[in-house]
Structure formats: structure tokens, C-alpha cells
Amino acid sequence: MIDALSKAAFGTLAGSTTLKRLASRYGMRGDGGFARRFVAGEHIDEAIAAARSVEAQGLSQTLDLLGESVASEVEASAATNAYLEMIPRIAEAAIGRNISIKLTQLGLDQSPDIAGRHLGTILARAHDEAFFVRVDMENSPYVEDTLTLVEAAWHEGLTNVGVVLQSALKRSESDLDRVLALGMRVRLVKGAYKEPASLAWQSKADVDAAYVRMLERLLAQGRFPAIATHDPAMIAETCRIAGTSGLAASAFEFQMLYGVRRDLQAALMRDGFGVRVYIPYGREWFPYFMRRLGERPANVGFVLKSLVRDR
């Protein structure tokens, strides 16, 4: 119940234009902006610099241009063009060719046809440049359209795409069946959105139990699954399952957020596991930042403590 209230409260705050305007003055200010620990910056040059720093530590990375729920087809086209411009910049920088996108950023609220067209354009360009594209999963109203559009791209031969599934959503275990049947790569997360009890597990114990059930199947049947978690219990469970089944550490990877548990990222890497860091950037950083705070009440204190430790 506390987790649900936290998500609801921070979800509301994330939509506040007044708070966003105030935060924008200070969040990205120099090196001391309070959001810079978790968001690389507002521009592609800053994201590339962050990616180089991450890779210098032996970690992998994926870049995400923040933005979602655009209000018009014009904005969706602009976001698509931004990704098309991002791809050659990443290639020229000689960093890992891995990006993440959201379909509401590409016009899914306007229509699935618009989002699907933009997704196809990005995937085709990314395919030509040997990029992998992860389509992030948004909240429950978008799940079916997201899966349908990604599947359509896959059947058109654009197989340089993967998807994200959230263990908090009750439907995700059956969605895993349809994605595994294609051989598509899956990123498994718990989920950061406030959802109704009819659609989502409400307690941490239930979300964790669903995560473990999906984890077991992914490690047994998935193609290079991405285990996205900062939860030591879920990490330990992943290591236990992999060890029991004789699965090589190179057969999967852990994924974590930029600026979160850097000590744990380094420890997993030293233990021989692959770790990919999700690096967000862009002017629309505020909703993302607020969702990170709302995932669980302890995150607020964690953010404050993180500003003075683990540097």
C-alpha cells in the first residue's frame, strides 16, 4: 500500500508544470545540479561523455532520449528526427550502439499507425548502422499496442529490436510467452507505474514473486535476457538460477540505472557478469526523475544520501 501511494504521489508531482519549471532552473545546473547524478544532461554531447565514462569502467550502456506522451504528430516527427540524428553521433563517437525509446514519444497517443511508422524508420536506420533498439514499456493502456507494433516490425525483418516487460502487470507472464515464441530479446523490470489492482500486483512480495517466475523462464528460454534490477534479492536469485542451471555469465546481462548503485554495478562486473547502464538525457528529464523517486519510499532518502556518498 505504501509503495502504491508513493507511486501515485510522485506520479502526480511528475505532471506538475509548476514544479517542473522550478526544477528546470536547478536540476541540470553545472556539475552540482541535483538531477545530474541520475540524468546525464540535456544534450547528446553530455550523454556521449557519460557513455564514454561508463565504458571506461568496463560496463556497457544504452542511451535514452527522454520524452514521452507528445501532444502532436509534429512533436512525434521531431522526436523521430532527434533519434535519426542521434544514431550517427553515437557511431562517430565509437561507443556502444544501443539505444532505448518510448512509443508515446513517437506518437502512440496520436495513433498506432503514426508510432509504428516512426518506429520502423528508426529501426531501419539503426539496422543499417548495426544498432540494437530497446522499446521501453509504458503504463498499462499502451502495453498491447507496444507489443503489436514491435511484433509487426519484427515480422518485417527488423529484428534489431527488443522489448521490456514489467512483472508488476498481471498480464506480463502471458506476454512473455508471445515474445519468447518470436525469439525477441526481453528486458525484465518490476515496473515504475501506479496501476489499478485489477491489472497489477499491489504488494512488493507479489511483484517480486512474479519477477522470479518470469526470471526463471527468461534464463531458461530467453535470448540474451536483460535482468534490470537494483534489488540484491533479485540479483542473488538470478545468480542462483544461473548457477544451478549451468548458465554462463555471458548468456545474460544485468541492467541498472545511471547513477544508481554504482558500487553494485562494479561488484557484479568484478564477479564476471555483464552490466549495462541505462543513460537518460534530454530536456524532458523531470518526469523520469520523479518516477525514480516514486518507485519506493526509500528512494527519496537514497537520492539525498547518494549525493554525498558513493562518488
UniProtKB/TrEMBL annotation:
Cofactor remark from the record: Binds 1 FAD per subunit.
Pathways involved: Amino-acid degradation; L-proline degradation into L-glutamate; L-glutamate from L-proline: step 1/2
GO biological process, alphabetically ordered: L-proline catabolic process to L-glutamate
Family matches, as SUPFAM superfamilies: FAD-linked oxidoreductase
Keyword Repeat: no
Example GO molecular function: proline dehydrogenase activity
Cofactor: FAD
Amino-acid positions noted as binding FAD in the UniProt annotation, renumbered to this chain: M137, Q166, K190, G191, A192, K204, T229, H230
Reaction equations catalysed: L-proline + a quinone = (S)-1-pyrroline-5-carboxylate + a quinol + H(+)
Binding-site list for substrate: K102, R291, R292
Proline dehydrogenase domain segment(s): 48-303
EC number(s) on file: 1.5.5.2
Keywords: FAD, Flavoprotein, Nucleotide-binding, Oxidoreductase, Proline metabolism
Keyword Phosphoprotein (UniProt): no
PANTHER family: PROLINE DEHYDROGENASE 1, MITOCHONDRIAL (PTHR13914:SF0), PROLINE OXIDASE (PTHR13914)
Name the record gives this protein: proline dehydrogenase
The species this protein was found in: Luteitalea pratensis
Name of encoding gene: fadM_2
